[in-house]
């Protein structure tokens, strides 16, 4: 780590040296810097520029970056261009494989507000409930916004709920769409990974990515425009596993295969192995086809031939034959690898932006887009020797796939003008996101043979309609007073659509859905008598009991002011009142100031309160299954916040998160050197933060009446549940950080150099006690409200130190991009014996032994290099690389034997087991790199070529 920090410092020193050298040359050409662009976020004063604001605003020119940058989707462009922003694709995380959670300033994906052309953008319908950063949150799907349609991004790095409503705790990202006319531009990008880890670490080339982007604008009327952008993308999946070390085949699988080769399907002869009229036939077939297994020893063969009952045959066939059977079937262990890495994706997107004259002094506008993405990700491999594998259909097991159809639609329209000295803007913005699951190459193991291999598992939907009325005017008071005010009404709806019955049902051997009266003899089993699970493997569908449609509305009033007291001193203030139909009202304010110490050096500071309304997805998402215990049905899974289980277990109704933010910093411009510097520090306190709890469980055994454990048993029984997960306002957190940006621009003759050095350091941690219900806390389950793994996801799963150095050079017709990004260390939520002392270290937390020895994956520098050549004004060719030096994260821990914590003794010390156990974070060589956290992915070097044309 020390060496990595030294690298960043060295890069920074080289940057300043180059800036100083270029400053000594006469610059004969004026360059309009991004800081001089009039911004539309953070200030409602239309004449404000980025370096003149009382809060930090980054302006990122996406339109120019899209020519040289190896990244083409918005989240990854931001991940490499803005150190305060973090987003990484996940792997083997169900729906989260298809939508990348994005975070700003180390806060949650749902604590940053996204605007499109200054209008509120809707969030995704997907709840991140699996093991990845942002677990339990619902963010905005930035990749649903077509990057080629964007002119620039304005990133407000400061709390702004008083100005823009819910979610703007960490800041605001405003996406400004292209407005150009009389020009057709196109970009054709093709690339692939050329990496040591390609093709499950056999090296070479793998995975093609092909993208076509088109943009065309034309005049609309006398002084209007309409701009269209379309995109088609096809991206293959990557494989970054190694040959699995798991046991794959047992002796029954071997005999079953010999029978299948002869047209006999033994597994189709029984539903429940202990209740079948075909027992004799099954035994005869096994004895007959066992003779075709040449590698059985004499002892094994004789034991099989002498087995005259199913029970005896189960004993006789209970041994592993993986290596011999692989050789017989002409397979290798690589054929059973999981698909670890990047998911498949095919997408088509169309965006439109327009503005036009309605009448003299009144202008109308409309913009929006349609995005369709079909993703395909895979789960854990189902081996033939597992009870969840239907070997009647899949003799070699199967890799189940989650196919997602993500449709995102948005449309905004409005009109604006002036009434006297008051400007107005009246608009309506609608957005909808749907996420539908189709589970493929899978099976419901409880279905009789033959059965389905593809299932409609249902889906999610979220829609939002926002009506805004915004007004602003200026007064000649002191050096200028800007007053903005307005109102907002918002209507939201969240839906869960159930899947087909076979996607979620657990059937009996007669094809009926099991219930409390289903006898054990009618429950499907594998050959060894293990009960078969129900539902489509990898992702059981949503049940009719999970289906719902819930809505809410809110109204808000705000006032936002800026006063230039003198030519040097600016103060601003904002107030916002908002009322929600489900949890009540909230009032927030913001105060900010900027003082010009000199014409080129500004001091700025801000303080604000903020809030985030719990999303409808967090309030109502539920996914449960039924288990029968002693013939009594009990529910297991994630329960909605308004469920009977939540009420009985004392989980309160979700309420808004509330925040207090403080920031201070300075900006400095050195015109002679073409240099600008910003440095800001911030502190954000969030109370009642919403988290997804770990699973609470019904205590086992006989508990004495009146004890907390007995009370919890009764509560679970009353709720008809045995295990439950909830969303809850469980914790308070604080986030502290420092951000700095240094930008330099110079031109020497025909050589232009733009350099940007940016760094962010942040730290998030829980403060105060966990907010838990009495019935659960008293029964010793407080640590499941906010577990050690949850702590890591919130506090340490994304880089707390990140720095980037971007250099772009233009020499005549040549363009170069050299970018180095340092991604700091991250902590894995899993635990293992990291230091090799034979013990997984644990601490006593809330009276319980909690393992706290986590792997820490070290920081890395990722280098991008691109070279472009302008053959003419209308044709440019770019070639380049992301991750030029083929850097990978630190490798995961394979099998480790260590003693683990079992409890706490009477003196309050952790007690460890006497016998060590094995921990394998790599899951038998599949997760060579952690699947739970990753600073920059695990795909290695990506090479690309791009053609840009314009007419």
Write the layout of secondary structure elements.
Blueprint: H1 2-23, E1 57-60, H2 62-68, H3 74-81, E2 85-87, E3 102-104, E4 112-116, E5 119-120, E6 150-156, H4 161-164, E7 171-177, E8 183-194, H5 198-201, E9 205-220, E10 224-235, H6 251-261, H7 279-290, H8 298-305, H9 310-316, H10 322-329, E11 344-359, E12 362-378, E13 401-419, E14 422-440, E15 455-475, E16 481-497, H11 501-504, E17 548-564, E18 569-580, E19 584-596, E20 601-612, H12 616-620, E21 623-629, E22 632-638, H13 644-648, E23 657-670, E24 675-692, E25 696-697, H14 708-718, E26 721-725, E27 727-748, E28 751-767, H15 774-777, H16 788-795, E29 801-811, E30 814-823, E31 826-827, E32 842-845, E33 848-851, E34 856-857, E35 860-872, E36 875-882, E37 895-898, E38 901-904, E39 910-912, E40 917-920, E41 942-950
Helix pairs in contact: 6-7
Coarse structural class: mainly beta
Beta-strand residue fraction:
35-45%
By DSSP (H or I, 4+ residues per run), the number of helices equals 16
What is the average of the pLDDT values? 91
Please bin the fraction of helical residues: 10-25%
Poorly predicted runs of 5 or more residues: 1-35
What kind of sheet is the major sheet? 22 strands, antiparallel, barrel
Shape: globular
Cα gyration radius (Å): 30 Å
Give a count of the beta strands, DSSP E runs of length 2 or more.
Answer: 41
What is the CA–CA distance across the termini?
49 Å
């Amino acid at each position: 780590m020390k060496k990595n920090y030294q690298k960043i410092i060295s890069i920074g020193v080289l940057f300043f040296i180059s800036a100083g050298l270029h400053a000594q040359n006469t610059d004969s050409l004026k360059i309009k810097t991004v800081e001089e662009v009039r911004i539309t976020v953070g200030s409602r004063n239309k004449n404000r520029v980025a370096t003149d604001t009382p809060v930090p605003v980054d302006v990122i020119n996406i339109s120019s970056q899209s020519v040289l940058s190896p990244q083409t989707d918005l989240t990854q462009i931001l991940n490499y261009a803005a150190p305060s922003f973090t987003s990484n694709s996940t792997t083997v995380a169900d729906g989260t494989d298809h939508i990348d959670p994005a975070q700003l300033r180390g806060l949650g994906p749902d604590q940053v507000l996204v605007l499109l052309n200054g209008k509120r953008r809707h969030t995704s319908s997907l709840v991140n409930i699996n093991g990845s950063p942002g677990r339990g949150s619902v963010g905005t799907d930035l990749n649903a916004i077509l990057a080629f349609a964007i002119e620039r991004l304005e990133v407000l790095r400061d709390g702004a709920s008083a100005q823009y409503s819910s979610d703007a705790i960490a800041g605001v990202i405003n996406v400004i769409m292209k407005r150009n006319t009389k020009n057709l531009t196109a970009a054709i990008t093709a690339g692939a990974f050329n990496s040591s880890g390609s093709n499950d670490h056999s090296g070479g080339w793998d995975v093609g990515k092909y993208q076509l982007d088109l943009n065309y604008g034309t005049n609309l009327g006398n002084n209007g425009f309409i701009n269209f952008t379309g995109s088609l993308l096809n991206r293959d999946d990557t494989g970054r596993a190694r040959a699995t070390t798991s046991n794959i085949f047992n002796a029954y699988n071997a005999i079953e295969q010999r029978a299948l080769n002869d047209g006999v399907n033994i597994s189709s002869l029984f539903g429940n192995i202990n209740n079948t009229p075909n027992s004799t036939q099954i035994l005869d077939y096994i004895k007959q086809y066992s003779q075709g297994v040449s590698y059985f020893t004499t002892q094994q063969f004789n034991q099989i031939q002498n087995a005259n009952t199913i029970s005896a045959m189960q004993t006789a066939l209970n041994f592993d034959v993986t290596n011999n059977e692989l050789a017989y079937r002409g397979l290798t262990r690589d054929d059973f690898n999981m698909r670890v890495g990047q998911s498949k994706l095919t997408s088509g997107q169309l965006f439109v932006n327009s503005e036009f004259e309605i009448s003299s002094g009144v202008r109308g506008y409309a913009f929006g887009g349609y995005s369709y993405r079909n993703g395909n990700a895979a789960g854990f491999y189902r081996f033939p020797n597992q009870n969840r594998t239907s070997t009647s259909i899949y003799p070699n097991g199967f890799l189940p796939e989650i196919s997602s159809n993500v449709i995102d639609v948005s449309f905004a329209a409005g009109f604006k003008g002036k009434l006297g000295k008051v400007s107005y803007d009246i608009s309506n913005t609608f957005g909808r996101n749907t996420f539908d699951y189709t589970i493929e190459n899978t099976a419901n193991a409880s279905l009789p043979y033959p059965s389905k291999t593809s299932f409609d598992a249902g889906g999610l939907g979220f829609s939002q309609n926002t009506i805004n009325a915004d007004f602003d005017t200026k007064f000649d008071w002191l050096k200028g007073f800007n007053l903005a005010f307005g109102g907002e009404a918002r209507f939201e709806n969240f839906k869960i659509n159930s899947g087909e019955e076979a996607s979620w049902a657990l059937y009996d051997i007669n094809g009926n859905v099991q219930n409390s009266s289903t006898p054990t003899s009618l429950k499907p089993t594998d050959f060894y008598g293990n009960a078969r699970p129900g539902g489509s493997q990898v992702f059981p569908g949503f049940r009719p009991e999970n289906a719902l449609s819930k809505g809410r509305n809110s109204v808000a009033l705000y006032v936002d002011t800026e006063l230039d007291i003198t030519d040097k001193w600016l103060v601003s203030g904002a107030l916002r009142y908002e009322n929600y139909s489900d949890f009540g009202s909230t009032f927030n304010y913001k105060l900010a100031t900027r003082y010009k110490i000199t014409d080129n050096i500004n001091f700025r500071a801000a303080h604000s309160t903020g809030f985030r309304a719990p999303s409808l997805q967090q309030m109502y998402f539920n996914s449960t299954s039924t288990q029968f215990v002693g013939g009594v049905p009990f529910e297991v899974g994630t329960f909605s916040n308004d469920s009977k289980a939540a009420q009985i277990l004392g989980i309160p109704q979700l309420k808004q998160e509330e925040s207090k933010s403080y920031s201070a910093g300075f900006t400095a411009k050195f015109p002679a050197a073409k240099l600008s510097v910003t440095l800001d520090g911030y502190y954000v306190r969030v109370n009642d933060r919403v988290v997804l709890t770990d699973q609470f469980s019904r205590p086992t055994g006989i508990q004495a009446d009146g004890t907390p454990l007995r009370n919890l048993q009764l509560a679970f029984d009353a709720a008809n549940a045995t295990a439950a997960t909830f969303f809850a306002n469980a914790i308070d957190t604080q986030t502290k950080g420092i951000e700095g940006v240094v930008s330099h621009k110079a031109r020497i003759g025909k050589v232009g150099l733009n350099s940007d050095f940016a760094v962010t350091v942040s730290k998030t941690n829980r403060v105060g006690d966990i907010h838990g219900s009495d019935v659960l806390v008293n029964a010793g389950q407080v640590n499941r409200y906010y577990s050690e793994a949850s702590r890591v996801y919130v506090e340490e799963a994304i880089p707390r130190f990140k720095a980037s150095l971007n250099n772009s050079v233009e020499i005549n017709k040549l363009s170069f991009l050299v970018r180095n990004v340092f991604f700091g260390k991250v902590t894995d939520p899993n635990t293992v014996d990291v230091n090799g002392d034979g013990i997984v270290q644990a601490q006593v937390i809330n009276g319980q032994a909690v393992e706290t020895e986590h792997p820490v994956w070290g920081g890395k520098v990722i280098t991008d290099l691109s070279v472009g050549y302008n053959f003419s004004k209308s044709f440019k060719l770019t070639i380049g690389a992301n991750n030029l030096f083929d850097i990978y994260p630190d490798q995961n821990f394979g099998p480790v034997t260590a003693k683990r914590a079992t409890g706490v003794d009477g003196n309050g010390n952790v007690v460890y087991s006497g016998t060590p156990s094995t921990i394998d974070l790599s899951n038998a060589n599949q997760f060579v790199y952690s699947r739970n956290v990753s600073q920059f992915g695990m795909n290695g070097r990506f090479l690309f070529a791009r053609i840009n044309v314009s007419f």
